[in-house]
Amino acid sequence: MGSNQLKTQLATMRDALFKQGYLDEQFIQLEELQDDANPNFVEEVVTLFFRDSVRLINSVEQALEKTPPEFDKLDKYMHQFKGSSSSIGAAKVKSETSLFREYCKQGNAEGCVRTFQQVKKEYTTLRKKLETYFQMARQAGPGESASRPKLRFQVYPVVGVLASVFLTSFKLYKSTLSEQNNASSYVLFLLMSVSIMCEV
């Protein structure tokens, strides 16, 4: 398969992730932070999200086995999951984590268990899709950025302001690093900063 054909398929796959609601504008923000010095920035951030998610999912599963469930601990884990999901633009995962937290506040164990299954389903689906996407991106090689959906920060002005401040700070932070440091060195800054936005 030719490079141009791969890039066309890649763009189609990417557009589908947005149209189907798997990704939101935050993923676009990550793409805009990627540059020649860090050509794999987005993939590295997403890979770290996957690794952290496995840890959080295991922690939630263990907490749900307690009788009665430890809702405070469950809410804490899901708060972390929501923040990291938000940081990469995992829209469907983030939505389900929000619902899970509502059930925690209500002390609804059945609702937590049911919603957690949906959280895992959305996470697994997104992971498979993104792993396929990044694999194809590597095969296609470097190229111009795909056409990006228009950002709609004006719909949520407070979040928009926070996002703008965060991105400006992050770019300044990134520029201070030596070329030897890759995205993994400062991605925790990203995750912690965006988790604040999730509570707006």
Supply the helix-strand structural class. mainly alpha
Question: What is the CATH C-level name?
Answer: Mainly Alpha
Sheet with the most strands, sense and barrel status: none
- Tell the overall outline: elongated
Briefly, what is this?
Keywords: Cytokinin signaling pathway, Phosphoprotein, Two-component regulatory system. With 200 residues, this protein is an all-alpha fold.
Could you describe the 3D structure shown?
- Helix content is 75%, strand content 0%.
- The chain is built from eight helices and no strands.
- The protein is elongated.
- It starts with a helix and ends with a helix.
- Keywords: Cytokinin signaling pathway, Phosphoprotein, Two-component regulatory system.
- It is found in: Cytoplasm, Cytosol; Nucleus.
- Functions as a two-component phosphorelay mediators between cytokinin sensor histidine kinases and response regulators (B-type ARRs). Plays an important role in propagating cytokinin signal transduction.
- It comes from Stephania cephalantha.
